[in-house]
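User: quick one - fold this with 5-O-phosphono-beta-D-ribofuranose bound?
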Amino acid sequence: MSNPTVLILMGSDSDLTTMEETARVLTEFGVPYEMHVSSAHRSPAKTSKLTREAEGRGIQVIIAAAGMAAHLAGVVAAETPLPVIAVPMPGGALNGVDALYAMVQMPGGMPVATMAIGKAGAKNAGLLAVQMLSLSSPELRAKFVAYKTRMAEEVEEKDRALQA
Ligand code: RP5
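Assistant: Sure. Structure tokens for the protein plus 5-O-phosphono-beta-D-ribofuranose:
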């Protein structure tokens, strides 16, 4: 695979089953990515190094997934000019609502694009990264338009089946 353009970070390997959905989407669109377990709290130096070096390595979008006290996306955004997409992980006492609130409540001046909790959010993080990269890639844009057309056709088929 060519050089990664998307960097996926997750706070724990327990987030992997959810974040495989992001990887699946990027693979489907042929977007090269790199995935690391790196925590804002448990391995701050590693997280900082991966973030600071990302742009110089050709990364264009960073996706950060974390659960509970989910600071990962925020600390990543603090150290890079790249756009950051946040994915709240389910689990913990509040099953992802805690992570959602942590991620969506970034102070003014420090945006992260926060997705839904869990697999839907992980899928959409991949798709939003594709859309961002599409701005400078007509080929990727065409694939995304085809994806949306296919989705509409699937809804149509389901409706036809319901009417039959
Ligand atoms: C967060 O705490 C991780 O992103 C994970 O969602 C959650 C629990 O981590 P583990 O205790 O399973 O490693 O930092």
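One thing worth noting: The chain is about 50% helix and 15% strand.
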